[in-house]
Amino acid sequence: MTTEASRRHAPALVCLLPGLALLALVLGSLAEQGLLDGLRALTTVTPANAESLVRHYSWWPRLAMALLAGGGLALAGVLMQQVLRNPLAAPTTLGVASGANLALMAATLLAPGLLLAGREWVALAGGAGAMALVFALTWRRALSPAVVVLAGLVVNLYAGALGMVLLLFHQETLKGLLIWGAGSLSQHGWHDAAFLAPRLLLGGLAAWLLLRPLAVLELDDASARSLGVSLKHLRLAGLGLAVFLTACVVSVVGVIGFIGLAAPNIVRLAGARRLGPRLLWSTLLGALLLATTDLLLQRFAGTLPTLIPTGAATAALGAPLLLWLIPRLRLEAGSPPGAATALAPRHPAPGRLAAGLGLGLMAAILLALLLGQAAGGWYTTVEEAVLAWRWPRLLAAAGSGVMLAIAGTLIQRLTANPMASPEVLGISGGSAIALMAAIFLLPAPGNLTLVAAGTLGALASLTVLVLINRRSGFVPERLLLSGVAITALFDAVRAIVLAGGDPRGQQVIAWLSGSTYYVDPVSATLVAGLAVALALAARPFARWLDILPLGATTAAALGVRVERARLALLLLVALLTACATMVVGPLSFVGLLAPHMARLAGFSRARAQLLGAALIGALLMVLADWLGRQLLFPAEIPAGLVASLLGGAYFMWGLGRR
Amino acid sequence: MIVSCLCTAVTAAGSPAWWHRRALLVLLLALGLAGSPRALAQPAIATLDWTLAETLVALGVTPVGVAQVEAYHAWVGAPHLPEASVDLGLRSQPNLELLANLAPDHILISPMFANLAPRLSHIAPVATVPLYTPGRETWPQLHELTHQVGRLAEREAAAERLIAETEARLAALRQRLPERVPPLLVVQFMDERHVRVFGEGGLYQAVMARLGLENAWHGETNAWGFSLVGLEQLAGLTARLVVVEPYPVGVETALAGSGLWQQQPSVRDDSLITLPPVWSFGALPSAIRFAEHLVAALEEASHDD
């Protein structure tokens, strides 16, 4: 009885805390110029008085905007998590933010006239485009959650990579968009709030109408269908609504991380089980959390020489909170996934397929070594002085491709989650944070310093991962959540750094894009050697890798010491990722794509998949490196970005084909 | 409206600014011509940094290679790079094969790109020329940079002349300033809600100090002498606003409907000054362009009063 009552009240208590904090902050801020004057500024404005001006045109609209945006994102987050049945799903999972970002960038560069018609419409169109692509790719699979999540991830990646290329070449023109990308709530009038409020109200109303049908999605597919529900159309409605809400918020204030992921999870943790209460409390909590963070930020960050955008700050503050929460989360025992493993039928002769890929790799290496461009045009050469520039890059590209592909295969099988990749695990993110710190805090960092900083960062995040997950025995869901938290921290740091507009940001962008540019013969040889050694080290794990995806209980019954196997695999993944990150940066996504591509091609058993993924990873990186150097000659597109574009395109084609 | 009429004022032939800029151009050409008989003996220089590139061109040197030539012309503008300068690709990742092919005698970089030095030094000796070092006065550092580039390009005399001419121009411009100029607030729009406001440690501040003008922004700034702030932080400052173009697309429309912006004193009494784009992290050539534009605009505004 008491537990039932306390459960019912727990979400309210969770909301009370930020609610009280918010009230205290609002009153504290208003008291600075007199409570009554502050309140009066809400409705009337005294032009001669600067404080009253700021209150009326900036402070009050900003508070309203924070509440609206926080509520909207949290609402969208609940809908996403409900439809996709994945607690890691966030409002931006389907590529809305990156689609909007890409549309804004493209419009700024190619058709500035469109922006005159209204930025928010361009952003909305971009977000809707990304969503439409995801739906088109997954329509024939009845928008099944696992496939939708994957397609969203790839569309996100693809738009992100294209955006990164544009940014690399037009950093000066696009610097304003970097602030938008970091999510600033700064206001100078009531028009944005007036744009958002009716749309969110409409969205809330639609969510209320969809409440009963959406609750059916908690059942499995067969039971839901037996109730006479069209799953496809229900999912379309739920996701469409979530995307609409997200796109509205994003188009006005930019990308605000974490709220849409955290608020629904906290409310669920606090004990809200049914969809109705979860929607209600999450929306309230999201609004309160964002407004409180924003007011705190205004209070304490005002004196810094650079703007700390709220969106990035919520992510930066939220990440440690999430890390603290993870050991306390009660996660359901991992259920074996079905859809991702069944993406494609097994190839009848994986050996022949692998041999073909090997030949392809050889051909690509020859092509990349001998053919290139100079100021005069295309030429082939075997001149040693020229080859000396090319072979280290090739070797490093191939080596890091192999390492990331193997790391990706290991982590996807270890966690039985198709969204898992070495990048998602946070090890690349940790090393990237350390690298950015080195670029910005040291006067003229050399390459050795940068490598040392990166290694330290990778080790630090690995330590955090192990410490947080040791007690739970490295449960995959927790592991991934920890990784997501570290990656969110990395995204936040990157967004803050880039939004500040420091010219050194260019260096950061170039390195983050994943380039083999900085490789010299020594490091290339080292990378290739390590790749071979670690690839051989991964072979004996193949049996574990076939068994672990079946779930912990099955694995233990088959005689695998699950905990030890997980730790060993995790360490191997960390080692592979750290080595590859040093060369190609943290955002190559080969680790995500290569294992999926191997599976799509028909490598289904663990050993075959390891081999196939390694070959595909190497081929992808070698081709990407060569194409990246030729496409926009003399400018070079980093190999990591080209690999994301190539791999992403193949992946989308593979998804849409069946 | 303010923008367009100021622009016409600045560009109108016959205005004093126009003649002075003409004189500067002639001087730069003369410096270039004076060096040309020795051109064959000149070391071939490539640079990744636009600030160093503009200094090289001002010294009459044709760099064999410059990174991101097109973007240089969009953002630095003047002095125009000679046709013979080859585009090296991205500043952060210049094309090494191409650079090796050009076989320069020196490669000039700024400390920002120090991590490229080991790779670049396989091609030619790399000189790292410091600029905008935190904690150091900007103006003396710009002199030093000019001297250092002059030495590397074997154009010491031209460097001396560029410095002397810049100082003379600044002194002359200072004489032309109107009697009383209120403190200035120099901003550049990033989007309709955020501006960079320039203060301690930046090029604009250094030039304003040389001209004896007061900067109204006393807040913290980063290593490059600017601070990114929301529009609301400009409210309450008694200063004349100076907006450095370009406005990002759509910003002017958005500002017309912005309550906060329309209540800015400079916007209300129509005393806002708009300047054509000048590279905000530049060296002496950018400094003198900024000074010319600013003084011309201030003069024009005082005639209107």
Task: Output the keywords.
heterodimer, A: 658 residues, mainly alpha, two-stranded antiparallel sheet, 27 helices, 1% strand, B: 305 residues, alpha/beta, 5-stranded mixed beta sheet, globular
Describe the structure.
The complex is a heterodimer of chains A (658) and B (305). Chain A has 658 residues and is an all-alpha fold. Chain A contains 27 helices and two strands. Helices cover 73% and strands 1% of the residues of chain A. In chain A, a hairpin with a 2-residue loop joins strand 1 and strand 2 (377-380). With 305 residues, chain B is an alpha/beta fold. Chain B has helices spanning 2-11, 16-35, 50-58, 69-75, 96-102, 117-120, 138-152, 156-176, 203-211, 251-256, 259-262, 265-268, 284-304; strands at residues 45-47, 65-66, 86-87, 106-109, 126-128, 184-191, 194-198, 226-230, 240-244, 273-275. In chain B, the strands form two sheets. A five-stranded parallel β-sheet of chain B has the order 3-2-1-4-5, with helices on one face. A five-stranded mixed β-sheet of chain B has the order 8-7-6-9-10. Chain B is globular, with a radius of gyration of 20 Å.
Strand order within the widest sheet of chain B? 3-2-1-4-5
Beta strand % of chain B = 5-15%
User: How far do the termini of chain B sit from each other?
Assistant: 17 Å
* DSSP helix fraction of chain A: over 70%
Structural class of the secondary structure composition of chain A? mainly alpha
CA-based shape of chain A: globular
Please give the order of strands in the largest beta sheet of chain A: 1-2
Number of helices of chain A: 27
- Work out the helix count of chain B: 13
Main sheet characteristics of chain A: 2 strands, antiparallel
> H/E order of the elements of chain A?
HHHHHHHHHHHHHHHEEHHHHHHHHHHHH
Q: Mean pLDDT score of chain B, rounded?
A: 80
What is the C-alpha radius of gyration of chain B, as a whole number of Å? 20 Å
- Distance N to C terminus of chain A: 52 Å
| Oligomeric organization of the protein chains | heterodimer
Helix content of chain B: 40-55%
Secondary-structure element string of chain B: HHEHEHEHEHEHHEEHEEHHHEH
Overall pLDDT confidence of chain A: 82
Strand fraction of chain A equals under 5%
